[in-house]
Amino acid sequence: MSKFKMRQTSPVRAALLVAAFLLALQFAAAPFATAQQRVPIVRDAEIEALVRDYARPVLRAAGLGKTGVDIVLVNDPGFNAFVAGRRIFINTGALLTAETPNEIIGVLAHEAGHLAGGHQERLRAQIARARTMAIVSTLLGIGASVGGALTDNGGLARSGGGIALAGAELARRGLLGYQRTEESSADRLALTYLERTGQSARGMLKTFERFASALALTGSRVDPYQISHPMPRERIANLKTLAEKSPHYGKQDPASLQLRHDLMRAKIAAHTSGPAATSRLFRANPRSQGALYADAINTHLRGRPRDALAKIDALIAKQPNYAYFHELRGDILIRANQPGPAAKAYARAQKLDGSKSSVIQISYGQSLLAAGDEKSTREAVRQISQALDRDRENPDGYMLLGQAQGRLGNIGEAELASAEMHYYSGSYDQARIFAARAQQKLKRGSPAWVRAQDIINAKPPRRK
């Protein structure tokens, strides 16, 4: 018996390795709803508006302008972007690292290439094939090993373990090779979109050069066949000649767009790393708009509202129609427990904001709610509800709406808002509890009652 167990070690190990590979495939194929629960999302009106402005012409050039592609900000310091469903996710680390708008536009063009090329759907098909190949090879290998053990044929038993491992390795390498091909395809499509929109590919090449330098600094030897992306130097070699032939290669970003980019970087650095990081970021020009904006944000975050107001007011005096300076003014005032002046600042920001951001409108509603009187609370309900009509997946908005409805005595609506908050936060059990409580207070068959029933009946995304 012990002899039989000893000979089973190889196929069992093979099966475990294949199982690990299959688990990795499951995570690679996980739907957005599951991924959303693991990804730390950032909501910011200023950054969202800027990145959407970067993406809009590229998405149009890719034939995606009318397909409802969303841009999602991820709170992560790494330089990365990816697609899932009809969403492009981009890390705050990429936005902070990129020195020019053109670098981020190149990243977005690459991700648009994945969407336009249908790479997600084909990747799922490739994963299914790889999974099938791994399972079949495992079953064949285990069968051979068991047969060898039963017939006391040690060579056959050992070869069975080899069959299982080799099949899994072939499946893994095949999948990685497919992914490298799709990455190269997305690079070429990105060049096409940049050319169609009259933009330079210099920023995209600079991104690959940054990757190549980072890889060189590690001193690591990377097997190009063991990774899912082409090597950075290979990508540069494949694209550089075509990029430099473009009449747009030397084109610079407009000064106004560069300023918005600098302000975005200032905000991210201040919120994620503090004064030391913003000083390093703007050491070449410490009196620039970006540096002064970062200083105002840092002062606000350190709890010095009077000084922060003086600094943001100085910026507003220079650029009175920039919506997000007024938004910061509202943030400072609401934190200083001055809801009336905060509401005026948010109202001004909302009026100037061309993107009609739900984030600013919800902040306006929050300041009205903080005022405490019934009239302001009713207006808070109106403002927040309008924002949520455009931005259905905003848990913070539902939390504030629930507070406002509760203050007005609308208990059923308050419970429903709490159910929505939990649902979009991924707490599905709590969402069902609050939805059931809401139905007890709502008129049966009303739109609110039906929405509560939808939450009760909703099946949470399966965890892969």
From TrEMBL:
Keywords: Hydrolase, Metal-binding, Metalloprotease, Protease, Signal, Zinc. Residues 1-35 form the signal peptide. GO terms for cellular component: membrane. InterPro entries: Mito/Outer_Membr_Metalloprot (IPR051156), Peptidase_M48 (IPR001915), TPR-like_helical_dom_sf (IPR011990). GO terms for molecular function: metal ion binding; metalloendopeptidase activity. Its cofactor is Zn(2+). GO terms for biological process: proteolysis involved in protein catabolic process. Residues 44-242 form the Peptidase M48 domain. PANTHER family: METALLOENDOPEPTIDASE OMA1, METALLOENDOPEPTIDASE OMA1, MITOCHONDRIAL. This is M48 family metalloprotease. It comes from Nitratireductor arenosus.
